[in-house]
Design a protein that fits this description.
This protein is of the alpha+beta class. It has one domain (63-243): Alpha-Beta Complex (Aminoglycoside 3'-phosphotransferase, Chain: A, domain 2). Helix content is 41%, strand content 18%. The protein is built from 8 helices and 10 strands. The strands form 3 sheets. The protein has a 5-stranded antiparallel β-sheet with strand order 1-2-3-5-4. The protein has a 3-stranded antiparallel β-sheet with strand order 6-8-9, covered by helices on one side. The termini are far apart.
Length: 245
Amino acid sequence: MKEIEIVVAHGERATLRVGDVFLKVDVDQTRTEVEVEAMAMVPIPTPEVLWRKPPVLALAAVPGTALGRLGEPSAASPAAWAAAGAAVRRLHDAPLPPWPGQSLDDIAARLDAECAWLITNGVLPADLVTRNRRIAEAALRPWTPVFVHGDLQISHVFVDGDEVTGVIDWSEAARGDALYDLAILTLGHEEHLGDVLAGYGTDVDLDVIRAWWSLRSLLASRWLIENGFDPSSPGCEFDVLRAQG
């Protein structure tokens, strides 16, 4: 019997690994439905669905290793980062999913609420939050929606050498801003932004990428703290916010 590895666990979801099988348990089956449907639609490698018996989804492990981890240097080559950018471009060129994404008004309202919480509870200095709130405003503009992954952390992109072998965790997939995916992929790894954009193959507004770095870090901090993660770890969300400006 292989050992059971707890990949991640919090009040909403848990992911376990047994050998080459991942078991994802989610209290919200809507997210699981989105994940399964998105993986069937996208033109890039994704995990194979082995079976589904709510609330559990069983997925096969993808080959290769993660592109990196937030807060740690990436061992992946510039060519691997460029390949990730090219994969994101294929995703963004795909037909839109039938379900919508978040509206600008919803994102702006969440941003206001999270900034207020960070300041009221003394989690971060008010001037740091205010400065990043101003930077984040550049992301709050109309965009042409594309098929976005929605949570394209570098730990969700797997590579073997210079090739992308799989992209995992599609529960946040929706219609959204292309620059959001590019920003999340390079969050905390600004040194690889040029490689990603070389693979992506089109000009982007770098101010909007930076705005999404601030916005994502502000929005995620309370959730991370309340679910046992540490955004103050070196290279993580608080450091991203301090580096902005």
